[in-house]
Amino acid sequence: MSAESVVKGISLIQFEHVRVYVLEDVPSGETTLIDTAFEENGEELVAVLRNEFGGVDRVILTHGDHGHHGGLPYVMDAFSPTLAAPDNETKLYEAIEYEPDVRYEDGDVLDGNIEVIQVPGHTQGTSALLLRDRDILISGDALDGADRAGLPAGYLLPPPALFNDDHEAAEINLYNLLQYNFETLLVFHGSNVFENPKGKLDDFLVEREWDPRP
Question: Domains of the chain, with CATH numbers?
């Protein structure tokens, strides 16, 4: 297994059911890992991080699902990175034994100019991460690539209702994302969207039975 470049300075490591992202030089001179996959992926994740990036300096967890934090103990033991995680994600703190160095909230800007946009519904504290200086949005399971559901790649859907704590909220709160500018949208399940992701999200939401916008 190896990392795959997505755009300059951002790589993904793909496992069977989920991927993680590695941000190089974010913040300057440091390497940031976004999520840690499942526990069973931990050893392999550490090997790829060590071999291809020399380790990581920071881990950001987007939410409390096991497939996004399960490998955390392996990464923490191997590299002793700092840890950032959503403050209001109860299920996460029931599952991990680490106290984050940063407990972030909606609207916070993390080192490296990464803005937190919380989209509750999939879980209580599901958070997307906006790389503000690059107009890149990392979904944090607020959105999947549509091909996860057998539809054409290049489009977006919320996670299946089966995986959401509150599916209606998971859809309604997607409107939060339309307040921001992004030209690339990176997901953890399905294909990433590089062509007009914001417009495609807006097109999806306008077809719903409700629209909370004024």
Answer: 3-207 (3.60.15.10)
Q: What are the backbone dihedrals phi and psi of residue 48, each rounded to the nearest 5 degrees, phi first? A: -65, -45
Edge to edge, the sheet with strand 4-7 lists 4-7, 10-14, 19-24, 31-34, 58-60, 82-86, 102-104
The partner residues of 184 in beta bridges, in order of sequence, read: 136
d(CA 118, CA 87): 11
Handedness of CA 149, 154, 157, 158 (dihedral sign): positive
Q: Residue 213: what pLDDT?
A: 55
Q: Are 190 and 148 in contact (CB under 8 A)?
A: yes
What DSSP character marks residue 193? B
- This prediction has a pTM of 0.95
Q: Give the tokens for residue 49.
A: 């991080």
